[in-house]
Amino acid sequence: MKPVKKRAETEKAGVGEAEVGETGVSGAGRVPFTRRLVVPGGRDGRRMLVIAVIDKIGTGLWAGASTLYFIYVAHLSVGQIGTLLGVSGVLGIAGPPLAGRLADRFPVTRVLVVAQLVRGAALAALLTTHEFLPLVLFSALGALPDRASSVLTKLFAARVAGPQRVRYQAIQRTAVNIGWAVGGAGAAAVLTVGTVTAYETLLLANVGSYAVIAVLTLRCAEPAAPGRVVAEQGTRIAQTGKGPTPWRDRRYLAFTTTEVWLFLDDSVLQVGFPLWIVHATDAPVGLVPLILVLNSVLVIVLQVPLSRYGETPAAARRLLLPIGVAFLAGGAALAASAGGGPWFATGAILVAAMAFTLAEILHSLSSWELSVALAPGDAQGAYLGVHGLAQSAQRSLGPIVVGAAVSVGALAWPVLGATLVATCLIQHRLVRPAEATEATKAAPAAPDGDCGPVSKAEHTAGTVDCA
Question: Helices 95-105 and 132-161 meet at what angle, rounded to 10?
Fold first, then answer.
């Protein structure tokens, strides 16, 4: 009876059958902090963490110089650069779902290696021309595997870390922010030279990072996909033709749609704060880079300790309420910053930055856990690929929304915060326990004297022992 009791307790707290086997994680908050720093996933988990850091160091080297490269080396106009980035962003949207489908059919490590090599080849191709159209083509071709790589890395982490995936993601985000900082500092140092050779050196350094991580990825063992584990245990899987698809899963599509809006913190921090500080407040312009530094420091310091609050679907769902509060507080502080002198404006902006960063940290935990927990094991790649569309869509929509808020004025920020609160409440309802998956609803009732209804996943996988 013990396995069933544990399952019943989990069903009360969680959001569907994805929680099977994860109840042991719920006590993670009592684990000493030193043990929580241990990277889940063994050797391959640690190796993929190193891969992520090297990737972000290389990206940080190039990201800070890419726009300047197009201006001073390729001699493109501002309009041409905007078009180039826009076209790249549109094509990049196709990357996550494509990567997810491929990862369900082929080894995720091999698909990731191909994506990394294509990223490097497309970036290196920029050195072959200064013509506008070829530069647009190469940039767009690089955006597709770039967006795909993020989904593939997430899928690898979910598989290799298992129930500890939230803690793994927290450690990874912390390391990635350190990588970004190192890369950005390196770019700043090189750009003090300001020569064509300096820009080309940063580009080639990023290309080199792709080659290095491709080699390291090849050394990673392929993690077991949830759907394959059942098959390897000798359980017969019904052949129903096509497997589950996220495109017909209205609940998952609705969840992904709300995610687009909740990812707005990225555009608010990257675009909204600089524009607002310059155009609407008396705060010094030098505060702009300090906001990004503050964001990185808070993520590095808080991401891992706070991960304990999102390690199960039920815990991830509970995080949506403080996320909404943080968004609302950040919007109110931004609005207040327009009504005072330099010192008051600076203080209000710093409060807003901390609030939006806290929302970012908590949402990353909630989003990570729910996106995996709501996905069927035998179509995890496809589902996570669809979820990846949320960030891609936000990158296109976010700057427009934030720019409009800056144009409207102080009132726009509390309104935007209120819409984010409403979105959190909507998502909180979408993933509530009562909304069990169709498989759970359709599960056959157990005979009299048995342990009661069980989910289809439990029945198939043989995880219930009612003896």
Answer: 50
Phi/psi region, residue 270 (left: phi>0; alpha: psi -120 to 50; beta: rest), is alpha
* Residue indicated by tokens 């505060």: 287
Q: CA–CA separation, 361 vs 266, rounded Å?
A: 11
Of 179, 199, 216, 239, nearest to 59 (Cα)? 179
Alpha carbon 221 to chain centroid, angstroms? 23
Helix 132-161 / helix 78-92 crossing angle, nearest 10 deg? 40
Residue 94: name the closest of 120, 72, 115, 71 by CA. 115
pLDDT tens string 280-298: 999 988 788 788 778 888 9
**What b/e string do you get for 328-362 counting C-beta neighbours within 10 Å, with b at 16 or more?**
bbbbbbbbbbbeeeeeebbebbbbbbbbbbbbbbb
The three-state secondary structure class of 139 is: helix
This prediction has a pTM of 0.69
Tokens 């524009």 — which residue? 275
Q: Cα(87)–Cα(119) distance, rounded to whole angstroms? A: 16
Closest CA to 220 of 45, 39, 40: 45
Q: Are 353 and 269 in contact (CB under 8 A)?
A: yes
Q: What is the dihedral of CA 240, 244, 250, 256, to 10 degrees?
A: 180
Separation of alpha carbons 364 and 166, rounded Å: 9
- What pLDDT score was predicted for residue 353? 94
Distances in Å between the alpha carbon of 238 and those of 161, 235, 241, 246, 310? Answer: 27, 10, 9, 19, 33
Residues found in the chain: 467
Write the burial class of residue 411 (CB in 10 Å: 0-12 exposed, 13-18 middle, 19+ buried). Answer: exposed
Residues 6+ apart with CB under 8 A from 425: 320, 324
Residues 6+ apart with CB under 8 A from 201: 190
Q: Which two tokens stand for residue 360?
A: 């970012």
Tokens of residue 306, six digits: 């706070």
Cα separation, 156 vs 48, whole angstroms: 8
Confidence band (pLDDT; 50, 70, 90) for 9?
Answer: very low
